[in-house]
Structure formats: structure tokens, C-alpha cells
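Quick one - inputs below.
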Amino acid sequence: MDYFTGSSKQTMRRDFLRIGSLVSMGLSSQSFLAKTANANLPTRIGKARSCILLWLDGGPSHLETFDPKRDVPEEVRGPFKSIATKVPGIELSELLPSTARITDKLAIVRSVTSPLGEHGIANQYLLTGYQPGSPVNYPSIGSVLAHHRQSKSPLPNYITVPESRSSMGAGFLGSSYGPFSIGGDPARPNFQVRDLDYYPGIDGGRLSRRRQFLQQIEALDTDLSADKVTLDPTFEQAFRLISTPEAKRAFNLGEESDATRGRYGSRTFGQSCLLARRLVERGVGLVSVLQTGWDTHQNLILSLRDGFSGARVGVGLVPTFDQAFSALIEDLEQRQLLDETLVVAMGEFGRTPKLNTGGGRDHWPRVFSVVLAGGGVRGGQVIGASDRIGESPLERPVTPADLANTIYQLLGIDPDSELVTADGRPIRINQGGSFISEMV
Amino acid sequence: MMFAVWLVTSVLVAEPNTLVDFDSEIVPILTHAGCNAGACHGAAAGRGGFHLSLFGSDPQVDYASIVPFAEGRRVNLVDVSKSLILAKPLGMLDHGGDVVLEENSSSVSILRRWLEQGAMRGPQRQLTELRIEPAEATFSTPGQTMPLRAIATFSDGEETDVTAWAIVHSDDPASVEILQEPLRVRCLRPGQHTILARFWNRIVPVSIVLPYDDRLPIERKLETPNSFVDSQINMQLGKLNLSPNETADDATFLRRLRLDLTGRLPAPKELLEFQSTTSLNKRERMIDDLLVSKEFSSFWALRLARWFQLRGSPQEPQAAIAYSNWIQQSLESRTPYSDMVRELLTATGDSHLVGAANFTRTVADARQHAELVGSVLMGSRIQCANCHNHPFARWTQDDYHGLAAIFARFDRGRMVSLKTQGAVTNLRTGESAVPRIPGVRFLNESEAALEGFTNWILDADNPHFAKATVNRLWDAMMGRGLVAGVDDFRETNPPSHSQLLDALAVDFIANGYDIRRTIRWIAMSDAYSRRPSRTSGKNEFEAWYVASLPKPLYPEVLLDAIDDVLELTSLEKGESRERAITWLDPTHPSPDLDALGRCSRIEVCQSQSQHQGLAAKLQAINGELLNRRIADKNGRLQCYLRDGMAARNIIEDFFLRALSKKPNEEQIVMWLEELGALHGEEQKRWLEDFVWAIVSSEDFSTNR
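Output:
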């Protein structure tokens, strides 16, 4: 008797409903679900080979970035003004002048909505496409990509710069699909990734022998011969990475010109974005770059614009983001990588439409903004809208599940295909989300 | 459908003339229809200007919102159908939430009657009990369905079938499916699953059991249980038709026991002696010997330091020392755990001398103090109740702020003391929180709040403390709590073996809160001694203890093990080495421990080491941690080589020392053949690589 008889019937039923919705989207079921035969796909889906995810940790205020409001009371508008951009009709915060020049490359979703207002659970929702709360520990988008795609390069397929958050992990897929955190600070002059070079006295030959001995030891309690033992995939990856000098050079920012490094900005976030570009250039699937500090409950002027008291030139969160983000997009375009690199900038929620008594804004998941570019995304557009004061979605609400679904499809991953947990449970890569068709 | 409506209506309403009760009939209707969910009108800011309490937790607020507010348009007593409270959900007027009620439903007819009767708020009866029948549903084949009924008992004594307004949710729809009209549950996969049934503002778990296929080969019949622990575990295994692994061999058992009780590997000599002894009760004797050893106190001091989130500050190293010493000495002298806790809660004085007073200094303020107390002593995460009542957790804002108020008078400087005044603001009322024993009662002004709380938590009838404590002990020994998540006791997360948890708690209370006694019960059980599972990865049977569960080692234990294997022991060296497990303070400088992912205690320690990714493997291969020790000319390998020890003996020694394994002759010969004729520097490098592989293996860093 097959224990899964019941559940597979259910799966078939869900598939049937899902197929129905795919058909209504103008995609025939057979052609989409067959990964190899992409001939019938609209030509712009599945173009992205890599993704750079700029994770704006803490929940960036939509009103001070991508969804500024004009004719509203001061306590809604906040301390900054709006400016026109390269695209007529689209305005951004005055703190994003460089981004305003490349707005024709961007798709700005202004109606993202979520019910989750606490950092931990909201992070999970945005980074996995699933709301937490069930016994299943869902994998992040990066881990799903790492699992889906066998990397030919010895570089890990999923890298976080400079560090991860717990929601960026592999969940039930197991730690071998977790991100490789490079650690350290790419902005420092002596930055290097730890432990990539041989310990004195060790060489390639000894490395191979160590690996072989590990197999022999793991084989002891089993009936397998040593060469049939599969080692921890993370160990295998480590062995490969160490023995490939070319892969290691990816992390060497010294190979970039001063001009390029300067263009991105000298702070951690800027240099991290530059490193991300180097990594996707060499075939890494997903690089997540972390910018912390967006949880601005107090004093927006200080945290978002100035960076420190008395700054004459703003070096706060938004100017830093503005410089690095625009540099990244322009750099990718110049190197003809933009079409195959999806860039996503998002945080876990937005911030309250009305300023609080500390001159800041508090958590607000009900409506916020997310920006996408490259990888087949049609730039120069705004998708959805928030209402007059940025409080609720006005039209075309988009959930984090929809975002995840869209990112997966742009990367050529079928969101309906199933992963399997260690105890045999089938879990869809994405559940409950729909592709944002305006994106392409 | 009409018949069903009529039937339900007649069950719910005794006579048409009875007054509809707002609290216990209207509010559940709104809850069932989803009106007061967080995504709709139950949101903190409401929706469309209409605010209801989340999931009906506050009928007073709800009544006010519906009846007097909005200029009374929500209820129209002249023309009932025009009431917004009907028109909107029926879709007669534009409603952001669309159509949520149907005209021909019992919900609507009750709403109408309430309106026709004048939309009053009656005697405000409360829901005293929600019962689901059956509380535990046992199936025999996958795909079967079973009906469910929900029975509510109210404070006026009335018992009513409320199945029509019960909301049943399955977290795991691949295992259990919920079907509507009539309400049924269908089990799809074997195991014991929990679904949640809620009515109005109460939620109860329902157990769904489907035994595993009895055509699976039964390896062993369940043995006669040797204690109440095994009889409960075996009963559950029998219910699910699972057969457990056999007992682990002596070497596996001793390594596990030593790591669990003393945080160190068994020495080779000890292991060989243990294996060769033939006495029948050698395991029992070993357990007893280890429980009274100094090593037990040292290691469990580290465990308790993690529970209490002990963390030193660089400006006041003496405080952490006093705290560590106090924990260590209390364990050595077998102080009852209840006495330790009494000191932790009430100790005052110079924290550099009074170790226990540092518990109060661990936290920055009264709210954090309440959260730490909730986590350690009550097994509960109460932090959500800071800002709102969680509808289904037992803790309310009054509970949270009231508990914080109990700790509000502390001065947390070096001289810990109780000031005459101190308060926290209750975010719900905006006023000073009244000290409150959570879930029970407010403390009145004449009572000393701290003493009142302490007496309550340590009272033999307290429902939280003993269970939370024995659950932590069980989790430490077995790798999984009877309640999964040692600080996650809640109605919706029931224990896997609730009678066992109760029995362990009762035994703990009745015998002086002696943690060694409970640990002994666990260590002596068959369930503890099982052979490890052969499959890797998470196993779906882990809650039933079919096999022993692998437990990752604390970074401190792992570092000590690495040192024990790669460096000479103190006995051999003639000088003692400080063991990492004695550094209870995580700020004690140790780059090696940081590299291994030591818990900083700033937050609750994760039981799973996060240090498993690529960075950890790179470090194992190229980093200092292992390589430096292997090459150390005063390290074990280099000393053995200088002493002229034969390669065979070196290989055997490292296997035994690190993995508690003795390779058989065939395996030794295979290793020696690999080594071949290498000698001198070449042989040294070969052995270094061998030793590296031993301490990098999964078997080494896992307690199976």
C-alpha cells in the first residue's frame, strides 16, 4: 500500500487547478512544465542566469525611497521631497538622484502587501515566499536555486555578502544548500575570504588524500566501499573551491580599478555590490548583499540621509544605497550582463505613513515597495500603487508569494515543481503566488 | 442544506424567544466568518474605519464598535436589513471583504434575531470550556474520514454544540485534511498529527493517529518496560505500530553517556574496561558513578549557564566568576533546583560576591526579566504579549506587564537591591501595570510581589515549573523535548507523551527537585539506550524515540574533544589544561570557540550549531584550529612519532580515542596497506592526514 496515495491524489487535484490558471495566463501547461522545451515560453521568462538580491534589512520606508508622496500633510510626507526621474510620471525621493537617472531600467512595485509586521517572520516571508508557522522549515530562494541548478563552477552557487540572516538558509533542503557567507568587510583594504588558501605544508596532493581518508572513515559502519561513500556535499565543495585558483580570484577586489571601486562608493554596501557583480560574472547563481540599519524608528534625517550628526554630504542609508545601486545597474549594463542578471532590492516591510514622535517611522507591512531590474524585466514602469498617503494598496496588490513566484520564473525555475523534505513530504517551490505578468 | 441549517439552528437555540447572547453567539459568528481576523477588521487599525478585537478577544470593544459607533448605522433597529452589519457581509453593499455570509445561513438568521431583539448585550457569559469530540481520533487506513464535533460550555452552565462555528486548521495538509459540511477530518499519512480546532476565542489541539503499516518487518517485540519511562514510550510505539531499534553496543552507549553527563569523550582505557566487564548492571553503575562525579557538576554548570543566559561584562569580570562559582557549587552540593531558583529570583547584594544575584543583572530591565523568567521557569515565550493579547496563547498583556511589574523594583547595578518604588507601563491601559501572577490573579498591594511570585512558581501545585524543567532535562539527554522547543509550551504545541511528562514532573516535585534523579530515570531507560538510526537527515519518527537522535556537540565540548584527541591530556603532560566547558562566560576570550560558533547568550542559544556551512569546512581544511594542533611538536601525534610508536598502534589509538571505535583486523590491514612503505617525513604527513580525517569526520563531532 502506498502511504502517499491520498496525498498524491491531492497533488493531482492541485495540479489540475494550477494547470487551469496557467492556461488562463496564456501558457500551455505542457510546455511550461517541460523544462527543456522552452520554445513556447514568452521569450522574456527564464532569461536570467543569476540574481543579485539587495536585502535592505529592517524594513525600508517606502515613503522615503521609491514611493514618495507630494500633496500630503507634513507628517506623512516626511522631511524629504520628491524629484522627477528619467521616466516622465515616475518620481522618487530626492535622496535617490543617481537612481533617478536609471529609472528607465527599473520596475518599481508599489503595492506589495503582507500581514506580517515582526522582523523575524516577515524576513522569512520575503526570503522564502512562504509564511512561517507550519512544521515545515522552508528554504530561501537562493537555496532553492542552489538546489535546482548544478553549478559547473567550483564557486558556491549561493553566496551572501558580507553575512547572512537566518531566513536566508536552506531550511529542509539541508545545510549543504545554505549560503556561503564570505565574512569580513569588502571595504577594508586587506579584505580576503578566510581559509581559501592552503595551510602551510598542505598542497593539492595532501588535500586529495585527506578527502579520501574521510571517505574511508565514513565507510566504516556501512556496507559501502569507500569510493562509493558520498561525503557531506559542503566538504566536497570546499575541496573543489580550494583547489581552483581561478575561482578564488573572484573574491579579489584588488583586480578592479580604483575608478570602478570609487563609482560604487567606498562603504561596505558599495564594495559588497561590486563583489556581487564579480561573482555573477563568474557564474554564481544568487548573491545576496546585506545592507543593515533600515529599521528607522527614530530620526529619519540622521539615519536615512546624514549617516552621522552634522554631515555636510549625506552618507546615510539612502545615499549609500543610491550610489551603489545605480553603479551596479550601470556596470552590469556596460558589461552586457544586465539582461541575464536579475537585480532585486527589497526589505521585509515598509514603514508607517505618519511619522512617530521620535521623527521616525514604525513597521508597516500593509503596503511597501520592491524594485526589480535586469533579467528580462521591463524597465521604466511602476506596477501597482499605494493610496494617497501610502497606507494601503490602492490597486494591483502583490504578495511576497507573488514576488517569489516571479523571481523563480524569471530565473527559469518552475514554481510548481516539487521539492521533497527528508521525511518524504512534497513541497512546492512556490505556493499561492502568481507571476506578475506586467514585469516582462 | 436547508435541513442542515434548520437542524443546527434548532440545536443552538432552544426556543425562538430566547435572547440571543452577543458575547457567546454573535462574536463567534463574526469569528467564524473571518471578520475579526488580523487581515480584516481585527487589525490594530481596523479596516474601513471598523475595528473589532482580534478573534473576538474583547466583546466589550466589539459591542461598542457595532452598536453605538458610526452614528449607529451599523445596526438599524427599524429596518433590520439595512444594518451595515448585515448588508455588507451579505454583499448588498460594497464590502472590501466581499460576500462572507449567506442569506440562508444560521449565522444570518441569528444575526437578524439579535437585531430584531434590539441588538442588546446580555449577561456576558464566558466560554469556560471547549471540547472536541473525539479529542483523539484513531484511524486504521489512510484516506479514512471521521466527523468532528465541537461542544462549548458557557459560564452559565449551558452546553451547546457549536460545530457550525468551529474553525479547524491542519498545519500539515499533506498528512491531515479538513473537510467541511459536515465537518470531518481525513488522515492521509501515518503517524500522530496535531490539528487545531477553535471556537470564538479558544483553541484546542486534536490528536490524529494512524498507525504505521503493520506489514513492515517487525525487528523486535517491545521488551518489558523497566520503568515508567519505557512503559509510556512503548505504549505510544505500540499505538503507532512502530518497532524500535535494539539497544546500542557498549562503546556507543558509553560515548553517548559520557558526552551527555560529563561533556567529554571516554578515555580509551575506560572504554576497553567497560566493554570487557561482564557484570550485568555495569551500565547502571556507570550512570551512578558519573552522576556523583565532579565532571558532571562542571558540565551541567555549563548547561545551566546556557539556560540562564549567563554572560559576563568586560568591566566586571568578578561578577561572572561569582555567578559561575555559585552554579558549580550548587550542583556539587546537590542543592535542590527549587532552592537554586528561589535564590535566582530573590537574591540581592554585591553581585561580585552573591553569585545568584547576577540572574537579575543578566537582563537590562523588568520586561526582559519577565521574558527570561517565562522562558526558563515556565517554558513559555511571552514576548508577543507585550503589545497585544495573542488570541490563542494563554498570555495576555496584563499577564506580561503584570509579570514585568513584579521585577520592576530591582536596581540592577553591581549592588543588586530592591528599591522602594518601581513600575512598568501596561501598554494596554497606559497606566502602571499591576503586579500579576500570570494566568492567575493580580497581586494586591499588601503582598510582596516578588515573594508572592516566587512562592507560586515553586509551589508543588504550580503547573509550569516542574514540567518546563524536566522537559529541558529530557531535551538535553534525548535530543528532543517531550514538548518540542523547551520554551514553547502552549496549548497548540502539545507534548508527544503528555502522561510521561506529567509523571516526570510529579516525581521531580516529590523528590526534592533533584535534577540528578530525573537524569538518572532517563539514562536508565531503554529509550535512551537505543542504537542510532541508520538513515541520515531528519527522521519522521524522532518524536517516538524509535532510534537514538543525533545531537551536535556544544562548541565547548567539541573544542575539549579536539584537544583531548590532538593534544596530550593533563595526566600525560603533568600539568592541567583548563577545559573549555569550564568557561561558563561566553565572553572569555577564545578565538577557537568563536570559530566553532560559540553561543553568545545575547539571545537564547540555538540547539543546532549554525556553524555547518562552507565557511566551517574551509576552516577545517585550511584553518588554524585543527592544523596547528596536528603539527604541534608537543601534540599527541608528534609525541607518538618521537616515541617510536608503530603506525598500527597510532591508528588504533586515534580511532579509539576520538570515535570510541575499534577497527577490526581487516580494516587495520587496509589502512596499513595504504600507508605502504612510507617512512620518515612521508609517513608523518600520511599520519597527519589520517588524524585530520578522524577529527573532521561527522562521527567525531556528533553525539549519536
